[in-house]
């Protein structure tokens, strides 16, 4: 119990800075996710064909629209670092909060690992096209080190950079779409020749849900900025909802141009690193070739940058609440960042980026994210039942409750089955890991938790208590 007496009172007064607005929230959410349009989603084509990937894109888009609606209400009301982890503390309890915190950290850290792996390999390809042969690993480590330094120095600078490079990456998708002349589809694109029926039937479509998640995975990361926004009731819903709209548009454009230029058998191949970049290369336009190289690289860097931000804040929140050693709950006295959590998680991302195949890294991230989404409907029902509309001041009230929660839970169950079809062993291994972690928390770590310190919201007692 010695850890309960650790921590100096003056250290507790150092808080994260409230400096962010809606544009930063948009940049955090879209910046993390936009890389999914540039790489990773194409594995869905290998599962269900081109049309199967499109169906998965829109069905999973509905899943994430429900996620965005639920998050916008709860996070704008529970405005604390940690996102869904902070929500779970207030609405369900410590064991659920601990697991949700782990879901978030692993989802973002694995996504970060995939991002920097792609960034390093893309730089290798670019230099190779100039006539030189280099290894991608040093560039991966260099990208990670620069982004870690940026996050260490401050959240405002980090997310301002993210806003610029995310907007630039999104613009390259628009440029590619226009450059391929969609008003004259047979001039360059050949959908009629390349598109086929569902090669593996409707079971293949369901299997495609697994990687359809990659179009949108990470938009829930906007919640991690809740403690650092100036106006949670405005910035979080506005940034999150405009973010999901941006991603839905980008996903549709990405599918359209890719399947109009590349055979589905090639798109679904493991060695297709960046489908949009490959699409630009076969277009014959040097300008599009260079633009999509830059866009793909920017998207990977922006995503990794946002993931470092989000993973560190979830880990920091768990340390501050003593779910993890309190050492992780420190805030830098000058930069006001969770610097210890940032530094601790970087080597983990580097290990996975250097030695684990991309498809497996993506699956690790997807499974952790999917477990988090499964928690969210339960969280929403608890939140509305314990504190009905009118009992507390909400930053935002999402419409149609409980329909979004029911749709989200149903789609999560179907997507778990989709993951099982292709990665059953990895799914079971991840579930075993979380069960072991839960047992460790219950028997070893819970003794250090101060339950009364976690309820930071000045709310009345829940209905029925």
Commentary on this structure:
This protein is an all-alpha fold and 465 residues long. It has one domain: Amino acid/polyamine transporter I. Helix content is 71%, strand content 0%. It is built from 19 helices and no strands. It is globular and about 65 Å long. The two termini are 30 Å apart. It holds the Pfam family AA_permease. It is a multi-pass membrane protein. One of its GO terms (cellular component) is membrane. It comes from Hypericibacter adhaerens.
Features:
single chain, 465 residues, mainly alpha, Amino acid/polyamine transporter I, 19 helices, Putative transporter R00093
**Shape summary:** globular
- Could you name the CATH homologous superfamily? Amino acid/polyamine transporter I
CATH architecture: Up-down Bundle
Total count of helical runs of at least 4 residues:
19
CATH class: Mainly Alpha
Write the H/E string, N to C: HHHHHHHHHHHHHHHHHHH
CATH third-tier fold name: Amino acid/polyamine transporter I
Tell me the Rg in angstroms. Answer: 22 Å
Mean pLDDT, rounded to whole units?
Answer: 89
Instruction: Estimate nothing, just give the exact number of structural domains.
Output: 1
CA-CA gap between termini: 30 Å
Biggest sheet details: none
Q: What portion of residues is helical?
A: over 70%
Low-confidence stretches: 1-12
| Strand element count | 0
SSE blueprint:
Blueprint: H1 9-12, H2 22-33, H3 35-38, H4 43-77, H5 84-91, H6 94-129, H7 137-153, H8 155-179, H9 185-188, H10 191-194, H11 201-212, H12 232-259, H13 264-267, H14 275-282, H15 286-320, H16 339-355, H17 358-386, H18 403-445, H19 451-454
Helix pairs in contact: 2-8, 2-12, 2-15, 4-11, 4-12, 4-17, 4-18, 5-6, 5-17, 6-7, 6-15, 6-16, 6-17, 6-18, 7-15, 7-16, 8-12, 8-15, 11-18, 14-15, 15-16, 17-18
Protein name: Putative transporter R00093
Pfam families: AA_permease
InterPro entries: AA-permease/SLC12A_dom, APC_superfamily
